[in-house]
Design goal:
This protein has helices at 42-56, 75-88, 102-114, 128-134, 172-189, 192-197, 206-229, 244-253, 260-277, 282-294, 308-313, 341-354; strands at residues 17-20, 36-41, 60-66, 95-100, 120-125, 139-144, 147-154, 159-162, 318-319, 322-330, 333-339. By secondary structure, the chain is of the alpha/beta class. It folds into two domains: 17-169, Rossmann fold, CATH 3.40.50; 173-231 and 239-354, Dehydroquinate synthase-like - alpha domain (Dehydroquinate synthase-like, alpha domain), CATH 1.20.1090. Strands 1-8-5-4-2-3 form a six-stranded parallel β-sheet, with helices on both faces. Strands 9-10-11 form a three-stranded antiparallel β-sheet. A two-stranded antiparallel sheet has the order 6-7. The radius of gyration is 20 Å and the shape is globular. Bound molecules: nicotinamide-adenine-dinucleotide (NAD). Nicotinamide-adenine-dinucleotide binds at residues 41, 43-44, 47, 68, 70, 73, 100-104, 106, 126-127, 129-130, 133-134, 137, 139, 149, 166-167, 169-170, 174, 177, 260-261.
């Protein structure tokens, strides 16, 4: 006979402080005497190494510089990073500081969460996508076998340091990728401010920097509310996957020929078409389409996509009965919807046909 003898609560009292600043100088101000191991994006270091290293100062214990490529967001890279943490003698009292876009933050945070079973973590996101989304919420990940984010942990950062000025060197295509996550948050939240922000991306310059700062504050405030209530995605946090079920499959099926933000944008558009086929007002899909065009994001598949169902089956939300999709029926009205494999196949095929 079985009998439960113990239940142990795991809710930590850890807090994430998010700071918006004009430069990187202060990101180690709270570190005290702790030493810092830096995990950094190679491109960011080629452009901003002076600012990054000045911010770390004489606390620097070691550095791991990596290319931001989905093909390198793997267990092999994680293992190489662990070896460097070992070589540098990183201890429980030290800090892992990750500086870069979502790829470097996901890998750096995974290493911090597993090294000595968890060391302090500071994140300095340097892409728009990472500033409006990936830096907050504690998800860490690597890809396995070409499938997105198959292994990972939940491990919130102690400090997130957001500097909108660092985005001035971001390539235009990457800037636009971040806009996809902003549109996602605008749809989920139904917030008038975010809807206005998602209405269009200003030209490079002061106005764009200010726009990015506003976008990060508004998106992170919304995400914080969801994540605080459901840190480990047991209920409402699933909503944040809007556009991602199809987006991840598109990324994998194109061999990462589409960037994350582009794939998610197509995923949002296709989900709105699927919702329309289930009764959502047709005008809403038109509004999504118009926002995507205003933000310079793709609204058509780049080519004929094959083998998508293999990747859809690997989705973390897939179960024998089907997969829970987040379908947008309007601004602020997104519904988790369990689709059987047959229903999914039919709706996805119809939506892809429309955006081919
Ligand atoms: N953990 C989460 O909650 C979460 C959320 C969303 C996305 N993600 C992950 O984020 C990843 C995508 O991240 P991303 O879109 O930030 O892209 P990325 O990390 O691939 O970076 C994009 C490109 O921009 C370059 N770059 C970065 N900062 C720059 C700067 N300031 N100036 C010039 N170039 C710069 C990088 O070198 C790279 O070439 C995906 O792997 C996705 O799974 C994670």
């Amino acid at each position: 006979m079985e009998r439960e003898i113990l239940r142990l609560g795991w809710r930590t009292d850890k807090e994430t402080r998010v700071v918006s600043a004009g430069d990187l100088r202060g990101f180690c101000r709270d570190c005290g005497s702790r030493r810092v191991f830096l995990v950094a994006d190679a491109r960011v270091m080629s452009l901003h190494s002076q600012a990054v290293l000045r911010g770390v100062g004489d606390r620097l214990l070691g550095t791991f510089v990596m290319e931001a490529s989905e093909k390198l967001k793997t267990p092999r890279t994680l293992q190489a990073l662990w070896s460097e943490l070992h070589r540098a003698g990183v201890s429980r009292n030290d800090i892992v500081l990750a500086v870069g876009g979502g790829i470097v933050l996901d890998v750096g945070a995974f290493a911090a969460s597993t090294w000595m079973r968890g060391v302090r973590l500071v994140l300095a996101p340097t892409t728009l996508l990472a500033q409006v989304d990936a830096c907050l919420g504690g998800k860490t990940a690597v890809n396995v076998g070409g499938v997105r984010n198959q292994a990972g942990t939940f491990y919130p950062a102690d400090l997130v340091w957001i500097c909108a000025e660092i985005l001035t060197t971001l390539p235009e295509r990457e800037y636009r990728c971040g806009c996809g996550e902003i549109l996602k948050t605008a749809i989920l939240s139904g917030s008038a401010e975010l809807q206005e922000i998602a209405g269009g991306l200003p030209l490079p310059g002061r106005e764009r920097t200010e726009w990015s700062r506003r976008a990060a504050s508004a998106c992170l405030a919304f995400k914080a509310g969801i994540v605080e209530a459901d840190p480990e995605e047991k209920s409402d946090r699933i909503l944040l996957n809007l556009g991602h079920t199809l987006g991840h499959a598109l990324e994998s099926a194109t061999g990462f020929g589409l960037n994350h933000g582009e794939a998610v944008s197509l995923g949002i558009l296709a989900s709105s078409i699927m919702a329309r086929r289930l009764g959502a007002p047709a005008g809403f899909t038109e509004e999504v389409l118009s926002c995507l065009c205003g933000l310079g994001l793709p609204v058509r598949l780049p080519r004929r996509i094959t083998g998508l169902s293999r990747f859809l089956r690997r989705d973390k939300k897939a179960c024998p009965e089907g997969t829970t999709w987040i379908l947008p029926f309007g601004w602020g009205d997104c519904r988790p919807t369990l689709l059987s494999p047959d229903a999914e196949g039919e709706l996805v095929a119809g939506a892809l046909e429309e955006i081919s």
